[in-house]
Amino acid sequence: MEGFAVKGEYEVVDETTLRITELPIGRWTTVYKKFLEDLEQENKITGFTEYHQENRVHFEVDVPKLEQLEDKPGGILKFFKLEGRLHDSNMVAFSGDGKITKYSRTTDIICEYYDQRQELYQLRK
After folding, report:
1. Which runs of consecutive H residues, i.e. helices, occur in 1-125?
2. Does 23 lie in the same domain as 79?
3. Same-domain pairing of 31 and 69
4. Which of 38, 57, 65, 104 has a Cα at 20 to 30 A from 13?
5. Same-domain pairing of 26 and 74
């Protein structure tokens, strides 16, 4: 199965604090907040604070055993669900002549537009 791995971004602030500044593509902030609330209810984290802006995610998470998470397979990414996969099985786009076309591989899209892009690059030069 083809696809792309997607990952969120985080930073270890100190021994007990994790800063999450980007979620994987397709993961919504409100759903992720609920996930963190569930972790807090299960006593896997001691709390979290939100510092979001209109177009930026920002969670500060208090994790008592952060060092132990880093040593596990998959580590922080897996525990905090900051990794995922985008599947490329349903790729539909406009073709070079403006018709909606379904592509089976990413390379098919590249091949479709290669000649047009090459011409445009030459014109720009």
Report:
1. 29-41, 66-71, 75-79, 106-124
2. yes
3. yes
4. 38
5. yes
Do 54 and 115 belong to one domain? no
Residues 6 or more apart from 114 whose CB is under 8 A from it? none
Residue type, 42: E
Mean pLDDT of 64-82: 82
Q: Which helix (H) or strand (E) holds 45?
A: none
Instruction: Tell me the pTM.
Output: 0.69
Residue predicted with more confidence, 23 or 3: 23
- Cα angle for residues 13, 67, 44 (degrees, 5° grid): 90
Q: How many domains is the chain built from? A: 2
Range of the domain at 19: 3-87
Tokens of 68: 């132990």
pLDDT tens per residue, range 32-55: 999 999 999 999 999 999 998 888
pLDDT in tens, 90-118: 788 888 788 898 888 878 888 888 888 88
Q: Do 96 and 59 fall into the same domain?
A: no
Strand partners, 61: 18, 48
